[in-house]
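Milestone 3.1: sequence recovery, worked example.
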């Protein structure tokens, strides 16, 4: 009796598996491309049957973008969802009140312009930077697929490349890194000749340059590498990690901060209209803190990118052709002018001939700084 029951169960299971496989074959996408009779590659293949004479539904050959849970995929073009925070001007910020404070900045504007020349839809959403990238690992939002990618990340060397894939850059110029320190009676607590031995140094959680990048660069005053320093976590935790790191230095919990060389300039109140971070804190440049190293570029592989994504996700393959197309347009040049990035953009036929601009102060190596620490950018001290 038990044997007969087992046989019946086995037959039933075999039937169900066969039926399931048959149903699956009817909706399984065919290969992404099919070869024409002349040997050329045709467009996306359509599946209309399973070879048994029964017509099945017509299916697209493959998803147009990596699938996300709870998100309608693109039907006739890729639909890519990119996330960013709004405290990284002018790359990622809030738009004007008249437009209901949308996600804005060079990255979103580039994505919007790209849709005009390429068959792609891009949706920008706000998140916290730590959902994209933490201090030394991929953020949980990106790892768990809350969005396809995150925008406005520099293609740094080191640890990021073990977790992430990067799109092609949308700016030609890599961003300079710097080291800032607090001023006590107008004097930096460490100077430009220091190799940082014994120095407590902090960095901005979730931002480049990353901790391992400091080992790549050299002191712009001595030409020597840095060594013997101690990394310390920011002693403040808010939604604004740049503020947290600077407060850690000003509070004396760290001696120096490894950060973008333009961070203080771009975060001050003069450059921003009622920003959500503490712009007055950054207005202390030259008063409460100053850079003792600027103009360090060796840490980056490429400039600002449109997307980072989980390594192997394939998002870069989707957006790179569209990036290449938009880089050749007049709208790209206008976008570069809008954000005062003409000298940092990829030059196309719409750029004026011989675009030459003076190097901005934070891109200058410390050895070429001629002002004083009271200006915010210290020169190399005498040796």
């Amino acid at each position: 009796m038990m044997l007969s029951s087992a046989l019946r169960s086995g037959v039933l299971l075999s039937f169900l598996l066969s039926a399931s496989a048959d149903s699956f074959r009817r909706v399984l996408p065919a290969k992404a491309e099919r070869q024409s009779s002349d040997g050329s590659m045709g467009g996306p293949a359509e599946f209309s049957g399973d070879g048994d004479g029964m017509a099945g539904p017509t299916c697209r050959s493959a998803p147009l973008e990596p699938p996300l849970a709870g998100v309608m995929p693109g039907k006739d073009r890729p639909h890519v969802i990119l996330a960013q925070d709004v405290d990284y001007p002018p790359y990622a910020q809030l738009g004007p009140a008249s437009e209901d404070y949308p996600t804005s900045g060079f990255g979103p504007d580039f994505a919007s312009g790209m849709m005009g020349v390429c068959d792609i839809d891009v949706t920008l959403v706000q998140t916290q930077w730590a959902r994209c990238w933490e201090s030394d690992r991929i953020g949980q939002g990106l790892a768990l697929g809350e969005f396809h990618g995150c925008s406005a990340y520099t293609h740094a060397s080191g640890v990021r490349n073990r977790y992430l894939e990067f799109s092609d850059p949308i700016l030609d110029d890599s961003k300079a890194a710097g080291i800032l320190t607090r001023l006590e009676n107008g004097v930096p607590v460490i100077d430009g000749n220091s190799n940082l031995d014994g120095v407590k140094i902090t960095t901005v959680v979730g931002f480049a340059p990353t901790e391992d990048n400091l080992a790549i660069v050299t002191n712009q005053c001595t030409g020597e590498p840095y060594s013997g320093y101690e990394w310390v976590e920011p002693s403040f935790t808010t939604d604004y990690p740049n503020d947290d790191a600077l407060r850690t230095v000003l509070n004396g919990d760290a001696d120096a901060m490894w950060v973008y060389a333009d961070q203080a300039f771009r975060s001050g109140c003069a450059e921003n209209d009622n920003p959500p971070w503490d712009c007055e804190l950054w207005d202390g440049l030259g008063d409460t803190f100053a850079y003792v190293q600027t103009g360090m570029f060796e840490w980056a592989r490429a400039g600002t990118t449109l997307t980072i994504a989980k390594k192997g996700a394939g998002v870069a393959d989707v957006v790179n052709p569209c990036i290449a197309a938009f880089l050749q347009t007049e709208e790209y040049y206008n976008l570069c002018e809008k954000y005062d990035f003409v000298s940092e953009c990829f030059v196309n036929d719409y750029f004026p001939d011989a675009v030459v601009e003076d190097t901005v102060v934070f891109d200058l190596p410390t050895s070429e700084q001629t002002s004083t620490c009271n200006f915010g950018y210290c020169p190399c001290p005498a040796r």
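Residues 334 and 380 are 38 Å apart (CA to CA). The first strand starts at residue 47 and ends at 49.
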